[in-house]
Amino acid sequence: MISFKNVNKWYGDLHVLNKIDLEVAQGEVVVVCGPSGSGKSTLIRCINRLEAIQKGDLVVDDMNVHDKKTNMTKIRAEIGFIFQSFNLYPHMTALGNVTIAPIRVRKIPKEEAEKLGRETLTRVGLGDRVDNYPAQLSGGQQQRVAIARGLCMRPKIMLFDEPTSALDPEMINEVLDVMRDLAKGGMTMMVVTHEMGFAREVANRVVFMDEGQIIEVAPPNDFFTNPQTDRGKYFLSSILTH
Amino acid sequence: MWSFYFNELMRSLPFFLKGLWMTVAVAGLSLIFGTIIGFFGGIMRAGRNKPARIIVGAWVDLIRGTPFLVQIFIIFFILPGIGIELEAFPAAVVALTNLTASFICEIVASGILAVPKGQREAATASGLSYYEQLRFIVLPQAMRSILPPLVGQYVLLVKDSSIVSAIGVVDITRVGWLTVQRIPEGLMVFGLVGLLYFAVCYPLINLSGYLERRMTVVSTKL
């Protein structure tokens, strides 16, 4: 479903993605972790070309993302992207936020899109909040609207860039619950997160990155109990003791 | 003597109202054209096409860096030399439109650039095209920061329009000049001229203040 082949990216002299090779199968949940600045956000931002790569191939759903001839609208429509800072549109209601792309990109009639929007907002537990503006919602509710916004496009893939890092602790679980449901429903997901409990529970594999490289890829239980590299051990000890 | 002149002045009132109408016509037309051109310019200035950004930026700097009186002289006296003949009224509208558009361009561009980057990223990620993003996501949010200074710019436009009297457009200022030759009470005549300008500008000033308060309240609520 997602295939990185020798992907490289530089910011000036900084080698932010260094020879990345990774295959993510349909229905798989991959958690990406690593110290800050390790390139994990950049990694998933390349998948829908929010960032460009300079070398290598990145293929999503049989379409080459970094080929100039590729229709990016078509790829992006299939990929939901969840930001750390939600990035809801503040001038639109929750329903407006989740229906704009289905109406404009998928060309779904407005009434149909609104029906879909209400259903999706209900699915993330916000059926009574459709007419609220983002500023009237808590952080956890805003992030769930953002997830609903992604889901309304009926995507094949959902990408999460530290979805709970900007949330107060008591709101983290309401977001993780929605993500657990998605994972159980068979959604292909890549999740950048420090929520190790979530990783253990739903991830098929954990990708550990440092300094732009993938250091380890392993099933969560193997990685958490028996990391194969010193950097992995050091990272786990530093996040588990904090 | 004073009351005689005052009565004379009152008899000239229709002449002043004609001048007022001319001021409103010149300023109003320039407002409409200047706003349209200014928005297009601002969108290009904040856009992704680098040559367009540079050209628009140079135009804005040139207009902001030269006196309006000089600009209007260039348009009215020098353009005919290269074969572009304009009457006083269209020349005034062209010059004022050009001036206003350049200022509105900067207001619009900074409003667009003030919208957080994440808004565009979210819209990009969901597959919206560049123009859909602009129309549905960026511009509606940018309008909050654009509207108050935009209306402020309209106030400046009305006042700057007095300079068109220099090329013979019979606006309120010109009417004042012509009248004061007959009624040599400068204070009285130009007092009336000022009052008429104020009557046009004051509602706009209030509107600008109202928008400023309303936009701040709304943006903190959202």
Structure, explained:
The complex is a heterodimer of chains A (242) and B (222). By secondary structure, chain A is an alpha/beta fold. Helix content of chain A is 38%, strand content 25%. Chain A contains nine helices and ten strands. Chain A has helices at 40-47, 72-77, 94-104, 110-123, 139-151, 169-184, 196-202, 220-225, 230-240, and strands at residues 2-11, 14-24, 29-33, 55-60, 63-64, 79-82, 157-161, 188-192, 205-210, 213-218. In chain A, α3 runs parallel beside α5 (139-151), α4 crosses α5 (139-151) and α5 packs parallel to α6 (169-184). Chain A is globular. The model of chain A has no long low-confidence stretch (mean pLDDT 93). Chain B has 222 residues and is mostly helical. Chain B has a single domain (2-221), classed as MetI-like fold, CATH 1.10.3720. Helix content of chain B is 82%, strand content 0%. Chain B has nine helices and no strands. Chain B has helices at residues 2-11, 13-45, 50-64, 68-78, 88-113, 117-125, 130-160, 172-182, 186-221. The longest helix of chain B has 36 residues, at 186-221. Chain B is elongated. Chain B starts with a helix and ends with a helix. Chains A and B meet through α2, β6, α3 and α5 of A and α6 and α7 of B.
